[in-house]
Amino acid sequence: MAQSRSDITKKALIDTAFQLFAVKGFAATSTREIATTAKTNIASITYHFGSKAGLRMACAQTIVDRFSKIRTNPEALDVPDIIKSAETSFEAMILRQAYVFLQLEEAEAMISFLFREAHEKGEVFDHIYENFFRTMFEFLLSHWADSIGISAQEAQSEANRLLVFSMIGQVAYFRVGQPVVAKHMKWQGYSETEALAVLTILQSNIRTIINAHRNAS
């Protein structure tokens, strides 16, 4: 269904805000610059979001909505066969998240925005943490427990939580460190071919870690 003019304007403002807030920061970005870059007027920011702060929070909610679908509606995502052939639900979740991070066109601006907000430790980051990160982490932890055959209580140990963070960290590095990876590998970016190469390595690492801890449990 075709988007209305109002929806198109709203999306343009959010996309622009992601880019400008990520590069310049919230305080250094003016509403005039946002409106001009989005090819609309300042009044549209007030109309759709109430204020520049409201637009900032809308960016946060966009991250929550976009990435929460990986957990709440995984079947809606068209993924390569390597994810469909995952041996465990934990592996499938990590690889699905990695694929979205690597292939999503807006991911770079979203991640840059997220890291800046995390550094500032304000209400915007708290919103993303409470509504996405905390829920997603607990979800992954439960699948980690199932994958290695331990109880939900055992999964809450410091060692297990750090193990899950370490695997999330691998995914995060390939997104945040994309310029370094691409330059060293002589890639132009993450095309489908390069993304599959990364997923193959991640899959091998995940299976090795799962097997090591499954045998030890």
Automatic annotation (TrEMBL):
GO molecular function: DNA-binding transcription factor activity; transcription cis-regulatory region binding
A Pfam family reported for this protein in Swiss-Prot or TrEMBL: CecR_C
Keywords: DNA-binding, Transcription, Transcription regulation
DNA-binding region(s) from the entry: 30-49
Signal peptide: none
SUPFAM superfamilies in alphabetical order: Homeodomain-like, Tetracyclin repressor-like, C-terminal domain
InterPro entries for this protein: Homeodomain-like_sf, HTH-type_TetR-like_transc_reg, HTH_TetR, Tet_transcr_reg_TetR-rel_C_sf, Tscrpt_reg_YbiH_C
Domain HTH tetR-type positions: 7-67
Domain of life of the native organism: Bacteria
Stated name of the protein: HTH tetR-type domain-containing protein
